[in-house]
Amino acid sequence: MDIAHDSITVADAPPTPAEPPLIRREDYTPFAWIVPETRLHFDLGIKRTTVTATLTVRRNAKAAAVQVLRLNGDGLTAKSVMVDGTVSDDWVMEGPDLLLTLQGEDHQVTITTEIAPDQNTTLMGLYASNGMLCTQCEAEGFRRITFFPDRPDVLSTYRVRMEGERSAFPILLCNGNKEATGELEGGRHFAEWFDPWPKPSYLFALVAGDLAAKSGPFTTMSGREVECNIWVRAEDLDRTDHALESLHRSMKWDEDVFGREYDLDLYNIVAVSDFNMGAMENKGLNVFNTKFVLADSDTATDADFDGVEGVIAHEYFHNWSGNRITCRDWFQLSLKEGFTVLRDQLFSQDMRGEAVKRIEDVRILRAAQFPEDAGPLAHPIRPDSYREISNFYTATVYNKGAEVIRMMRSMAGVQAFRKGTDLYFDRHDGEAATCEDFVKAIEDGAGLDLEQFRLWYSQAGTPRIEVSERVDGEELVLSLKQVLPATPGQTEKSAMPIPLRVAVHDCESGALGAEQTIVLTEEHGEFRLPLVGSRPVVSINRGYTAPVVIERLLDRDALLFLAAKDDDSFARYEAMQELAVGALVAEASGEADAAQILAGREAVVEAMQAVIADASLDDSMRSELMMLPSGSYLFEAMATGERKADPGAIHDAREAMKKAIGAGQSSELHAAYERCAKVAFDDPAGVGARKVKTLVLGYLAASDPDKAAELASHQFDSADNMTDRQGALMVLSGLEHPAREERLASFYQRYSGNDLVIDKWFTFQALSLHPNVLAHVEALAGHPDFTMTNPNRVRSLYMALAGNPAAFHEANGAGYRMIADVIIALDPINPQTAARFVPALGRWRRIEPGRAALMKAELERVAAQDNLSRDTFEQVNRSLDG
Ligand code: B3K
Ligand code: ZN
Prior knowledge:
Layout: H1 2-12, E1 23-24, E2 33-43, E3 49-59, E4 68-71, E5 78-83, E6 86-87, E7 91-94, E8 97-101, E9 106-115, E10 125-129, E11 132-136, E12 156-165, E13 171-174, E14 177-184, E15 188-199, E16 206-209, E17 212-219, E18 225-232, H2 241-258, E19 266-272, E20 279-280, E21 285-289, H3 302-317, E22 326-327, H4 333-352, H5 354-373, E23 385-386, H6 395-412, H7 414-428, E24 432-433, H8 435-446, H9 455-458, E25 464-472, E26 475-483, E27 498-506, E28 516-520, E29 524-530, E30 536-540, E31 549-551, H10 556-565, H11 569-588, H12 594-613, H13 619-626, H14 631-638, H15 647-664, H16 666-677, H17 686-703, H18 705-718, H19 722-733, H20 738-751, H21 755-766, H22 773-781, H23 791-802, H24 805-808, H25 814-826, H26 831-835, H27 838-841, H28 849-863, H29 870-881
Parallel strand pairs: 2-12, 18-19, 19-21, 22-24, 25-31
Antiparallel strand pairs: 1-23, 2-3, 3-9, 4-8, 5-6, 5-9, 7-8, 10-11, 11-16, 12-15, 13-16, 14-15, 17-18, 20-21, 25-26, 26-29, 27-28, 27-30
Helix pairs in contact: 2-3, 3-4, 4-5, 4-6, 5-6, 6-7, 7-8, 10-11, 10-12, 11-12, 11-13, 11-15, 12-15, 13-17, 15-17, 16-17, 17-18, 17-19, 18-19, 20-21, 21-23, 25-28, 28-29
Residues 314, 318, 337, 340 line the site of zinc ion.
């Protein structure tokens, strides 16, 4: 009886989802075969594409000798397998992979597969988008196209023949140079491409569709002419000028600043509307999300223009930092991503101004990377293990990775750093390298000792630096202590070198001290710095030289002094932030009494007044200084030690502060608004002026909503550009005012059919301060323009919601439920995008107990779903366990 019962139970139980295997960095072994040449033949169709791959394989003398050739696959079935031209049955499937036994040293392996691009909703591998075919292979998408050693250390040249119907696919693009084209029977045609640069499979790309190009040549430093094309749908051609100009600027900058020249005669960029991320650096054929290509002043904001320029540059810079030198394995991802982010940041600093760009980058780091580093998903910039590599395209690998390399640059100095990067490019060109190779090249080339510095690659968590100081004669003694928080799997940590640019000013006389760079290498360190007066105030981590949290208690006068007078722009910004964070966290945590709350607000209002009045500032910098810390940064500042974050209290305190600023500075804000409203769109000062106007509207909306509605409506109605229109509509979306519905409707009508702008329309409503955001989002999910299959649209609604602190953290848990529902619904369609929503719920441990329980319950509900993807499985379980 018992036995029968048991067997019935077992038979009826749902299959336990197998835990996806953990891949470890320390298990790396070189591949047993090399693949010098790859030939691909594509018979293209939206419903069915046939792929025949011919691989020239040879035993790798540097690896263990084995007879088996493991070819990765993902959902593929082999139609035929041939070895040296003869059908082979010496192969087996092992899970998704094809294992072929080979007798000799050299062989030609030919495999045919068939795929269905229009069924591919994951947007990995070959898929259909708006009637065209395109690919995304990084990290492991090539194995969805054909069986192949789909790992970044197997480099091969690719010769590709594409065939398809001319009417459906008039343009046929692939990596490298086009070598032949021609007509075939039945209205079909072909193109043959050859990429002479050996590359890993993740850099393969193909595009077939009805596209038009904006073209413009670039002449390289050695005088070669490169044909540059931006491919889009014909109706989008008039929005491509900025992308092409950005590409040309990037090509020139990389020659001037890093000595890197482009190496093919052709550079193609294709814009597609269904894309999982921003863009992809495939060799000679970048594929881009339309969001980072299309821009004109009627449809894109100033920030969108910057985004296009930054992403075009980033993908272009990958040609050297990523393509010419690629990664040995995916644990080395920061080798190409951290370095390329640094390169694109430096480029944008040069294009747009160093101070403001630096502040923007630090703001992103704090909003996206600090929470990651402090939560269950924390990992070193060079992770030790993963189940799904797509989950490690993170702010840590990218943005902290860039900060780590920036520290090397700060310590070496710009010229010595350049010697290091020259050596790196020279030494490892054509290789699949490691982070260690990079550090060694900088060490050798720049003449730095980076022995201890390597810890930045292996230790996760944001260091906190406790600062204290005393005066000793003519010197100030600065005592620093570094505290390295425990992170999942890492409880014990060693002190890391922390480079800090510092200066000691005098807040009585206003004298400014000279700057120097100190490096804290031990847990404790003391540094003696010259005094310039009797009321010293330390300006620390100027320019944000180290990605750390500075912990110190500065009195209000010292902060007001730094905010108004420091000669380092970043330090001014930081002092404004410190002033606001101190006041807001004290209020939100209940640590301040009514009088202290008032005094805190007054200090911020006073500092704001000085900033608004400061004639030495341009409006771009002014608006940076006028910005309050984000909800997410305040969350981090509140959730320290045993103290938990209370998003409701943070939100209330922040709104009250905005109201105090709006009321306390009403006439100054109005005057600034009027002054900025007079600046013409194409005036060089226009970008800054528009930023100030948007900020002013935000403050006035908190203190005088009717007046704000009036100003915003007028701004909206008279706008001659998207920045002003968006700035006005963001504010109106948050107000309960008739102008809200009217302007939202008119915006929708005006831009109906323009996907990127309609994305904005969804975002305004999901990100707004309106009390009924959740109801709005629920209604928008049923809007005919909403679809779960387009990542931009999904993000425009639900990422915006997850980033809206008041709505997402609504105390009854409705926001959490909505995001969990999205993860569950999206996971079977597009796991990569679904998993990106998990971290928002993963912050539960650092939040007050009521909300924490609700968030955890939603994570558990997701975890309990059958057949979760590897992506979501890993993120949800790390979020529950870590
Ligand atoms: N290298 C790509 C990212 C690919 C993400 C794959 N899940 C874009 C970039 O960083 O340039
Ligand atoms: Zn990148």
